[in-house]
Amino acid sequence: MALFRGTREFKGVLQLGRSASTMAYRNLSNIPNDIVLIILSYLNESHRSSLRSVALVSRSLYLCAVEFLFRDISITLPGTDHRIEGDILKALYRLPPNVARCIKNLHIECRGPSRRIKSGLWGKEHYEPLGFYYNIEENFKHAKDLITKHSENSRPANYQYDLNQHEDNWRPLADFIALLGANRAIRLNWNYPRQLPRCVRMALEASPNSCTVYINIYQVARNSVHENDVDTATSPCLAGLTCGIHGAGLKIEQETYKIIQAIASGLAPNIQELCLYRQTLPYARSDEDYPYLPSAYVIERAFLQQRRDPLKNAAKASKGGKLQRLVLDGPSLGDVTRFLEWRDLIDISCLKTLQLTNTSIDEATFLELANNCTFSSLETLILWIGRVELPKPEAIAEHQAFCTFIRSLRPLEDIRIMADLRSDLLTATLNQHGATLVNLVLSLRPKSEFFAVSIHDVEAIAKSCPVLQSLSITIPRSKGDAAEVAIYRALGSIPQVRKLFLTLDASYIAPGIEYEEDGFREYENDLPNDPSFDSSEQRVFLRNEAPFWRFPRIGHLCNGLINAALDETLARAIFKAIESRTLDILQVDSIGACEFEPDRPYPIGFDQIIYQITRCWWLERNPRDDRRDDLMVEDVTPKTRLIPPEQKPLEVDVAEVVCKVWGDDACVGLDWTEVWHSFPLLGG
């Protein structure tokens, strides 16, 4: 997009109003077709609504835009087989004629409630089906019921009968896939809580264009299963597999691991992506059947029937797994023992994406990765580093081991790190990979004591990363003073940055005297006084009953609310302070409100205030060249990150703090919800 700004040919291309359609058509008709496709590709990536507007200018532009508008198609179906055939036909009927030649990715989803979640590792907010990766801690009772009713021995007795009976329901989808596969190679993403139907799998396998399927698997069967299950696990079109270990017992976990490793090591000859998550369960009614993996016994029997070696010998002999993406997400899945198993099973040199998250990688694992693994094709690295409960010497040793590992890699394009950051970690990353980085995610753990991102770190990123386009980073708030504004200015100096995902950390971890008592890390009781506080702000806020709480002063609470308050006015001011003409998208949110001690929440009584004032804003620059200063702003606050508290009148001591921050008007009833606001940046 930046290539064409200001050129005579490109002027007017995005002027999409009715009066400008003739100009847009005339200008685009003079541009080579390959350049038009580049423009449409940019719009498809960042400004989908504008792409639709461009498509309406003329028939020729519509035909070009269709190539991008219909690359990804999602069909959402009910969770039962009742009337599946009719729902599929209705979905296909809505597609424009002759659109089959454009489709590359076909998604089959389950209809149900959804929730909006924010993933710090990915640096952006996204939607996912409610519960497809359902954590046990979030809904223990529901999870317990599922484990009981869908254990390894719970396959329905009429399973084979059901499959044969409902196979015809999926025939329209199989015919559509056959039509798509005749034109080009397509990718089928199967996110539906049923086995992949035989007719659909056979349509993929029969395609002359090497179609692929990516499946989410939720259960593991240890007894005999349907023939179609084994055929799916050994299918040449199986390119991706996501499986969850729900923690129902060590024996089931070991069984799952054996099955997954067998598939990855060559049972599925063309598998490229493997994602293994711990403590996950599907969302569905308890009487529904879920996709199953065939048991290890059935897999090994299939190997023998095909005159192959047994599993353990086949893996060692061929090392045939050519995985390009490996995700191990969960406790103990990324430790050195587990990873050594994967190193012996698959060809590590083929990996393009490695993700080890929600697990604490120890020093030994990093050193093993650095010294005995060759990641010659790696492009994307996603890691969770360090453990808050570790003593500082051990945590520092882990960071040093990570630095050794990061220096051993070829220059990467995409690095995402969840860590207690230290300056040496950031320096090692930038020195080795800065010149090639396109996407960088530095996700601080909330209330980290190790390292706060400063202006010098942002300047180092700007200097070391000439092609960086997307940055996700956590920066400390300091009431919008000169130091905070300087960080925003420094972000604007990153040469090619297009997307920024900023998390504003409002927490205040004051230095204090640490001591050990009964195995707990303790601090001196009260937060240190601040000379800028007046007499009323110096008073200690004695409200929390926990004996290990570092009691904040009134002034600390006032500062915490000021730093946490994030409304549209402040979000726009931050975008303006960054002063970058290349910046197209800014997401900014707030964490750590009134938090003064690691791993401890805000004081009792402030929940409804913090829920109201901590927001997440999405700001996007207008794609039109003549309106680049216009911002499209949306409140995308993920309301599920906190349980909505009960709205009630503020208690006296809490209301006193609110009055100090937003004036006396905020203390009348619940009026504070209407009068709260953010505070301007210095010089803003």
TrEMBL record:
**Per its record, how is this protein called by name?**
F-box domain-containing protein
All copies of the F-box domain together span: 29-75
Question: Which domain of life does the protein's organism represent?
Answer: Eukaryota
What species is given as this protein's source?
Answer: Microthyrium microscopicum
SUPFAM superfamilies linked? F-box domain, RNI-like
